[in-house]
Amino acid sequence: MNNKVTKAIFPVAGLGTRFLPATKSIPKEIMTLVDRPLIQYAIDEAREAGITDFIFVTARGKSALEDYFDSAPELEKSLKAKGKTGLLEELRHTDMESGAIAYIRQREARGLGHAVWCARRLVAPNEPFAVLLPDDVIAGRVGCLKQMVDAYQEVGGNMVATMEVAPEQISNYGVIDPSGSNGRLVTAKGMVEKPSAKDAPSNLAVIGRYILRHEVFDALKEQKTGAGGEVQLTDAICAQIGKSTPVSGYRFEGNRFDCGSKAGYLQATVAFGLARAELHGEFRSYLESITHLPRAAE
Ligand code: G1P
Hints:
Number of strands: 13
Helix content: 25-40%
CATH architecture: Alpha-Beta Complex
Structural class: alpha/beta
Number of helices: 10
Distance between the termini: 58 Å
Shape: globular
Radius of gyration: 20 Å
Bound molecules: 1-O-phosphono-alpha-D-glucopyranose
Number of domains: 1
CATH class: Alpha Beta
């Protein structure tokens, strides 16, 4: 069984309605934490985990994403002429060698499972692949996907990132029905997408990092709709349990920010701002000063 993970799918076709009106003209994945777009954090995490082939499932109105990973010769020339080597170095992070990145269009918004299925022809039958949801930004000493890839070498199967969430939050997530655990690994005997709090089998939420086997496309092919009337990735993964591919949850080490919600995005902005050496002093003293003022920005 081939357990080497070098390919990743990034579903980036979502409309980003929670961030309207900004997302009327910019893809939500281009929204920035400090000075880097959300997608850059996901790409860096994937690279750290050994990913070399990047598949973006996009949609109409997402061309800014394609431009972001293209070369920018005029900009580079002008930075070079001005001797701005630091900025040039920053730009290097956005470089993608020709052929490393593929764009597939999802023609209709039919859910995460459908978006992943759109990339089926770019994944070989014996090849495991990762899926990263760029809304979930995870800060950690070692990237979340790298942690998972390392664990995956031992256990294989399908693997999802997981963390405990508060009971009142659980209905926003895919949820694991656990049958046992071993260190950071949790064995799943079932999974359910967005259950009500009272029906949730546990408080272990699926977070947007997955390592999956090709068999998941067999279930996705059926295009069965689930929660919210959408084709759910969680359901397709769950369908493999007891059939072909065991599923484990991986309790990653690190802090996860839900940048698909305004509160989570603001929290991430503060956390990543404080983590930057050049902002630390000024930003921290500002935050300390406004925590005493009830409405600093009004
Ligand atoms: C998606 C998945 C869900 C997962 C969540 C993590 O939901 O469908 O299983 O728990 O991402 O962020 P969404 O947030 O797109 O509704």
